[in-house]
Design a protein that fits this description.
Layout (H helix, E strand, L loop, with lengths): L6 E7 L3 H12 L4 E4 L7 H5 L5 E2 L8 E2 H13 L4 E3 L4 E6 L5 E5 L4 E9 L5 E4 L15 E2 L12 E5 L3 H10 L5 E5 L9 H8 L4 E3 L2 E8 L4 E8 L5 E5 L2 E4 L3 E4 L10 E2 L2 E3 L11 E3 L4 E2 L7 H19 L20
Parallel strand pairs: 1-2, 1-8, 2-5, 8-21, 10-17, 11-12, 11-17, 12-13, 20-22
Antiparallel strand pairs: 3-4, 6-7, 7-8, 9-18, 14-15, 15-16, 19-20
Helix pairs in contact: 1-3, 1-6, 4-5
The structure holds flavin-adenine dinucleotide (FAD).
């Protein structure tokens, strides 16, 4: 629909389940779509907070792991080749004099769009940082908050900090690849899935509990050792390492969205039955949206997404029907 390369019909803020399904749906309505996600990965709460948990209340899936649902949503959304921008947090939303909406991100790149759909859930996620002197200077060197390629840990001595699903899963995944894996947790009990903890305990993973990170020893380029201290004790251990993975969970914050001028209710954006916010051309759906009787579930977001997209389509092109053709009548769009 858009004739300018840099102008999108709809830009979706947030690549959680609602944003992904909305992007697919906008593709189905032949809109030019962009998704901007603050994390380096798609999936929202499912990908960050509970990837290994089973979900039982998504229609058509009697039981599905959160990360599997994300994979299926990704396959579905990529059918229409939306532009997907990862690792960029949208910080501002303004309107130009010609009506175009401009989204600004932390990278400073402006994104232009005719309509915007906010599916930002509980806000932008960021990893809970390691609060130890000098940690910041090693991020993107050998201190990792994310693991994108397990091969970089091949034959390395890796220390993992954390005691939840993510930490234990990475310990199990990297154990056959790395030279040595050590996991450090402040409690003797891990908060991860029982079967994962059992697998880790039966493997070669060195378990150091109840200890916390105290300091880092390293040179300009890399951490060489992590010093850990016993919780409520005096013992200190030095753990030599090649790589340090920090899995302390995520913090979320709707942050700048509060200043974009929309009507809000606590940390949610007020919408009407068309999922319109108080700014024309700006829609909200999923956990971030609020209306009387709102229920925050994946299924609700999946229902709200098509409502928002169909109304955004009609907003751009008043001749376009709000009520779409059924996807079952659009087979030609899927035969490619
Ligand atoms: P989110 O999943 O929160 O995704 C929002 C995305 O937007 C995030 O990726 C975030 O990084 C991004 N974002 C936010 N702000 C910005 C910004 N400014 N710029 C760029 N990106 C941004 N629901 C169920 O239906 N069934 C269940 O069994 C179930 N189990 C759950 C278990 C747990 C432990 C938790 C925490 C939740 C569970 N839920 C469940 C709730 C469900 O996960 C949410 O309802 C769902 O994730 C909402 O999807 P969403 O896309 O609206 O938001």
């Amino acid at each position: 629909m858009s004739e300018r390369d840099d102008l999108f019909d709809i830009t979706i803020i947030g690549g959680g389940p609602t944003g992904l399904f909305a992007a697919f749906y906008a593709g189905l309505r032949q809109m030019k779509v962009k998704i901007i996600e603050s994390l380096p990965q798609l999936g929202g709460q499912l990908g960050t907070l509970y990837p290994e948990k089973d979900i039982f209340d998504v229609a058509g899936f009697p039981k599905i792991k959160a990360k599997e649902l994300v994979k299926k949503l990704e396959v579905q959304v990529r059918h229409f080749h939306p532009e997907i921008v990862l690792d960029e947090r949208v910080t501002d939303l303004k309107r130009q004099s010609d009506g175009t909406l401009v989204l600004e991100t932390e990278s400073g790149t402006p994104h232009l769009s005719r309509t915007v759909l906010i599916t930002a859930g509980v806000g932008a996620f960021a990893p809970r940082p390691l609060k130890v002197n000098g940690a910041d200077k090693y991020v993107d060197k050998n201190l990792h908050y994310y693991v994108n390629d397990i091969q970089i840990f091949k034959d390395k001595r890796v220390v993992i900090l954390g005691g939840g699903d993510s930490a234990v899963d990475w310990a199990n995944t990297l154990e056959p690849v790395a030279k040595k894996i050590t996991i450090v947790h402040r409690r003797n009990q891990f908060r991860a899935h029982e079967t994962s903890v059992k697998q880790m305990k039966q493997s070669s993973v060195q378990i150091v509990t109840p200890f916390t990170a105290k300091s880092l020893v390293g040179n300009e380029h890399a951490i060489e050792k992590l010093v850990v201290q016993e919780v409520r004790g005096d013992r200190e251990l030095e753990l030599p390492l090649d790589d340090l993975i920090v899995n302390y969970g995520f913090i979320s914050n709707i942050g700048p969205i509060k200043n974009w001028g929309m009507e809000l209710e606590k940390n949610s954006i007020v919408v009407n039955t068309k999922m319109e916010t108080s700014i024309p051309g700006v829609y909200a759906a999923g956990d971030i949206s609020s209306y009387p009787g709102k229920i925050k579930l994946i299924a609700t977001g999946f229902g709200e997404a098509p409502t928002a997209v169909n109304n955004a389509k009609h907003f751009i092109d008043p001749d376009a029907r709000t009520q779409p053709m059924h996807s079952s009548s659009s087979g030609e769009l899927f035969s490619k």
